[in-house]
Amino acid sequence: MEGIGSDRAAETSPVAQWKSDFSRAFQYYLDRSTPHTLQRWLGTLVVAMIYILRVYYVQGFYVVSYGLGIYVLNLLIGFFSPKVDPELEPLDGPSLPTKGADEFKPFVRRLPEFKFWYSITKAFVIAFIMTFISVLDVPVFWPILLCYWFVLFVLTMKRQILHMIKYKYVPFDIGKQRYTGKK
């Protein structure tokens, strides 16, 4: 009875140990990349360009690209939406100001920037890997998918922008007043 727990910890399989080490190292580099916003997004742009070049070179995988576009649109909606939507949830605490006299409350996103970046990068990497699976290369007329995606994008962003105007919030730091220390 004494050694039951201690023997199990010592008998870790090499695969489990490798997975644990890899997970720890991956999280370490993710944590180190957090303050480097511009470099992270430039890296994602490079990954996206590699994916686009792959799809262009292969002349296929348009359904995979369409699915990727829908997923990115969904992430974009979460990135532009407030954490607490005044239309859907009763307000228990701080809310978005709706009148000019309301106290300023900072905009808190439903999907933080780091998670947004990580999800988009992971989606492009997975979509790139999917371009090597020939079963997923479904023959479709890609201009129809592209037109449908643009219609979805315009309608969704129109609704989101109207929501921003109605509840008077801006999800960007552009144009917001910045306070500096004493001079």
TrEMBL record:
Domain of life: Eukaryota
Major subcellular location class: membrane
Subcellular location per the Swiss-Prot or TrEMBL entry: Membrane
One Pfam family hit: Rer1
Keywords on record: Membrane, Transmembrane, Transmembrane helix
GO cellular component entries: endoplasmic reticulum; Golgi membrane
Spans traversing the lipid bilayer: 41-57, 63-81, 140-157
Membrane disposition: Multi-pass membrane protein
Biological-process GO terms, alphabetical: protein retention in ER lumen; retrograde vesicle-mediated transport, Golgi to endoplasmic reticulum
Described purpose of this protein according to its UniProt entry: Involved in the retrieval of endoplasmic reticulum membrane proteins from the early Golgi compartment.
Family the entry assigns: Belongs to the RER1 family.
Name assigned to this protein: Protein RER1
